[in-house]
Every structure is written in C-alpha cells, then in structure tokens.
Design a protein that fits this description.
The protein is an alpha+beta fold and 217 residues long. It is built from 7 helices and 6 strands; from the N terminus they run βααββαβββαααα. The protein is globular. This is DUF4835 domain-containing protein.
C-alpha cells in the first residue's frame, strides 16, 4: 500500500527499512523462484507473483538453500505437511522441514521495461502493473499470448504483432517480456479492456475504507 502511495502513514515514510524474517520452504520458493534458475519448474502463476514481489522489494536469502530446522526456534513453527514439487526441491537442497531466512527491503525505484517508476509519484502505473503481472500469470504454458491480447484489447489501435510474436506461447517467453508488453499496453487497461471489472476489483482491495463504512462492508 505504501509503495503505491495509497496509504502514507506507514513505517516506510521514516526512512530505509529492512526486515529479517524466516519463511517456510513454500514461501521461500515463492519469494525467490522468479530470480532463481534452479526453480524454473514451478508454476507460471508462482513465478509471476515472485517476479512482482522482487520488483517491489529486494529479497536476499541469508544462507542460500541452507535452512534452519524448525526445532531451532522456540516455540517451534508449525509447517505445511507437503510442498509442491517437493522431490525436485529436495534435489536442490530445499527441505520442507526447514525455515529459510531472508532480508527484505522495499525498493525506492522500480524499472518496468523502459518505464522508470518513482514510488512516490506513480500509484496508478504500479497498481496496473501489479494487476497485469498477476493476471497474466493465470495463463497456462501453452497459451498463445497474441491471441489472448486480441481478446483482452479488441479496440486497441496498437499493432499487437509488434508487442509479441503471433505464435508465441507463454512457455516461450521470459518474465521480462511481460514487462515489455506492459510498457506498450498499460494505457490500454481502460474501460475497453474486457476484464476491466477484475482490474477495478483489484484496485478496491487496496483502497482505504471510508471512516463511516460498516465492518460488514
């Protein structure tokens, strides 16, 4: 919320903030998989969420894949019984039995393709970008991206063939390619966007409630 300038009365306004925390294996994977070539087998949705997280924050593992056993902490942490792709993660050294330390720092400036966003001034771009990355993460690996863009932006005057190849599938693209698409299409996320209601609902999650709103609202 602070990063998108929706709410300013947070600890971030007082200067640089650094958080050290310990994550379950699943959350550690989610926070780092977009930046780690050893984790490219995780789902498209997870990689997109991780990409967004790493755009907004600098995330540094404290000790790589060397985790801390949960009985190191008192009281011990309850951990999930299973981890998606557990066998593959075991091969990399990531164990569901461990917790993983990370250092998290908010970024003051964000580069999205050729857009350079200062946190204090680009609320709408950042909100749209967050939506875009999560929304495009819902596509499957075999989805033809150009076809989806034509469905989403039926009234655009932009030549979509200049945005992505006509036969390109999600699996053919890098996460950076979705940033480049956003730089070309972010102005098209308007009332003509066929999923505009989803975008509005996404915005609503981060808007402060009014003082006279009832709890049930």
């Amino acid at each position: 919320m602070h990063l998108c300038a929706v709410k300013k009365d947070t600890m971030f306004q007082y200067g640089a903030v650094q958080l050290i925390t310990f994550l379950s294996a699943g959350n550690f994977v989610l926070s780092t998989c977009a930046m780690d070539p050893n984790m490219q087998f995780v789902s498209n949705g997870s990689k997109h969420k991780s990409w967004l997280l790493n755009k907004l924050f600098t995330i540094r593992p404290i000790s790589g894949y060397s985790g801390f056993r949960r009985d190191t902490f008192s009281p011990s942490f309850p951990l999930p019984k299973s981890l998606s792709y557990e066998k593959k993660f075991n091969l990399t050294g990531i164990s569901n039995e461990n917790l993983y330390g990370v250092i998290i720092e908010p970024r003051n400036e964000i580069e999205i393709g050729n857009l350079n966003s200062l946190i204090s001034s680009d609320e709408e771009i950042l909100m749209k970008y967050a939506f875009w990355i999560i929304f495009t993460g819902k596509m499957t690996a075999k989805t033809k991206v150009a076809q989806k863009l034509r469905e989403w932006f039926p009234k655009t005057s932009i030549d979509l063939s200049s945005v992505v190849g006509s036969d390109a599938k999600v699996a053919d693209l890098k996460l950076e390619d979705f940033d480049q698409m956003f730089t070309s299409l972010h102005m098209e996320l308007n009332d003509d966007f066929t999923h505009i209601n989803e975008l509005r609902n996404f915005y609503a999650q981060f808007r402060p409630t009014t003082e006279n709103a009832k709890f049930a609202d």
